[in-house]
Amino acid sequence: VTFELTRDYLDRFAEAIQRRDAEFIVSSLHGVDSADISNLLYEFSTDECKYVFEILPPEVNAEILNDLDEDVRQRFLENFSSEEVAAFIHFLDSDDAADILYQMQPKRREEIISHLTDEEKAGNIQDLLRYEEDSAGGLMAKELIKANANWTVRQCIEEIRKQAEKVEKFYSVYVVDGRDRLLGRVSLKKIIISDDKAKVSDLYDEQVVTVETHMKDEEVARIMQKYDLEAVPVVNAKGKLLGRITIDDVVDVITETAEEERQMMAGVSDDVEEDDSIWAIAKARLPWLIIGMIGGILGANFVGLFEKEIIVIPAVAFFIPLITATGGNVGIQSSSIVVQTLASSNIFLDSMLTRLTKGFLVAVVNGSILSLMVFGAIIVINKDQSLAVTVSAALFSVVLLASFMGTVTPLILNRFGVNPALASGPFITTANDLLGLAVYFSVAHLMYNL
Amino acid sequence: VTFELTRDYLDRFAEAIQRRDAEFIVSSLHGVDSADISNLLYEFSTDECKYVFEILPPEVNAEILNDLDEDVRQRFLENFSSEEVAAFIHFLDSDDAADILYQMQPKRREEIISHLTDEEKAGNIQDLLRYEEDSAGGLMAKELIKANANWTVRQCIEEIRKQAEKVEKFYSVYVVDGRDRLLGRVSLKKIIISDDKAKVSDLYDEQVVTVETHMKDEEVARIMQKYDLEAVPVVNAKGKLLGRITIDDVVDVITETAEEERQMMAGVSDDVEEDDSIWAIAKARLPWLIIGMIGGILGANFVGLFEKEIIVIPAVAFFIPLITATGGNVGIQSSSIVVQTLASSNIFLDSMLTRLTKGFLVAVVNGSILSLMVFGAIIVINKDQSLAVTVSAALFSVVLLASFMGTVTPLILNRFGVNPALASGPFITTANDLLGLAVYFSVAHLMYNL
Q: Is CB count within 10 Å lower at the N or C end of chain A?
């Protein structure tokens, strides 16, 4: 039943565009989901896509736009006049329309809104644009079905019939009082199985989870996931029903958050994809590489202070990579578990002290095991007891210190409102490299000069 | 409206358990979502939780169990007889029941199923247990509302009324033929606004996205996300309707996949959380640390081959951390973008050659910039031209090589069916450390001996 994009079809489609074969394009795309069409269009140039847009119905174009990657969409829309963009946006839900307009210059935004023929929609979109894009207000749609508590089920159904065209998907009817304050919800299931004459006030469920407009999108995601919600109503501080957020938008938030975190861990500073330009990719990677390089130069100058020791016992230099690598690994392991806990919904987090103690004990266990193994390996391979003592003692201290740094850094970042995941990236590796070198050469200095 | 877990309430609740004050417990938890109750119970011992379970209604207990962490749940359930567990499972949807039973020994599993009074449910659960846990079959629930295409809307509503008790949440009615083959779906909205006498065959939408039982859970997640679905029907190869997967289960799959990937990147081998035992945490971290350590020992022996060079020009040793750190950073950056592309839904991936060429060019850009900066820094700080040439030439080569390794490793892992995210962790760092050292000392050897 689903559309499968084959190389064959792609070739035929390309040919059809060349020959301006509108009939093939329209008929072969009939009934195909907009997500599939937008995937298909990624393979074509702007001009080719513009031609496809000319011959497809505007409501389909609107859905395709909605499914396109943000960057691609913005670039593509620059080829259309404000009036043309308004014609697409007319067919979108207010939240999807606002998402597109968020990315535009205020002047262009207002032009587009002024061309909207549906004044209610224009008002809704303008309302939404007032909220932060990454807040519940920025995530919600104004389209929803609400019923007054005094209505009967029949009146409810009448309202649904009236609204059905404007609200594409809904799972329940929100029940409000005369002042639009949210009282509860009735599921569609309940409406279907209830008598037409039943009063909404007797049917609705008061236990309804809500979010407030100012809430961060990640918090909304956490709540919807926790309570297994497919939609959540958005209210203001006075409990007035303003909109609703559906799970598909929240799934995107969850995916983006995970992606962002992964990029931070990988030391990529910007949102880049493999099909971006070489310069864009290089630029996104450079900042962390430079930070690492500066760390490396500082490290070199620090190690330089121990030039004498290295000349006398060059074997000390051999184990520099072991020390820095282990420090880096332990630091990332420790920070990542803290980041995970900070992101989870655990309410009563362990106190700072409990956490540090536990991290310390884990570090003692692993530090001891690793040190013993390295001690044995150096005795067997290098047959040098002082070296074995130096390296293993330094390794043990580095594991403890790196674990401490890895635990404390994300907590501090979090305290200052910075994304703690930043601490799982090259940041902690660079810091631990320097720290590791300091510990290692201090131990070596003590060992060989006493 | 939502329950807020305060330290105050927690203290009162603890006191109530001590005093066996069933009334306070039952009344204060009345109407509270099971997700909140399970969060609350994490703060108490097994015996205390058992007492709470004794006084709460079994359907609430079932939901609490469903919301508990898998590990915690399994340990907790060991305190109940098979008959008692069956009494909880009776109130769960088949997929949630199967999730609990998947974790148990086959004998215990069969005992519990044999105690189920609802034979249809027992059969459904046994059906589900036949599928892989991480497949669409393992993810689906058997509970759904289906209607024959020949029915009227009224018959549909009758069926919903009949099934309403068993199927907690549903968004559409699946339409089947006489042999249970899926024909399409009708949304609840359409049922509500259609005339009672209308035929289902005239209402249903044929364009319905389906998944097959053998599909991997991550593939199901990708499809539901792509098409913004709140539920997807599961069919077998012949198109027979077997179950449906709802978005809440898929949100969990998405979160778990992201979590798993993050752990791989952080070099934590097992699913551990901050509140696990010290030994469990230490054990989960040890394997990658040991691999890193073995890499470090190999590296030390490799650097040992260049003992003479280090004695003559100790400054060469100073820059070891710079070389290994940059190699590690570049490797992770390159691998992470490949992993991201492999996980995304892009259909026509760039060819291997295009990809390597692009990665190579990005590496040339960043390698040049970094090398120039390091060259300048060494000239200014160390005032040693040969050293500057050695380090910057080695750095440039290391950036190219690490980028190549970072691009190729995940592609190779993916080809062999191994999760490519593994390549973004300590694996690639260790390999790049060794590679970087080899390049660095080869360049140094050439520079100072020619």
A: C
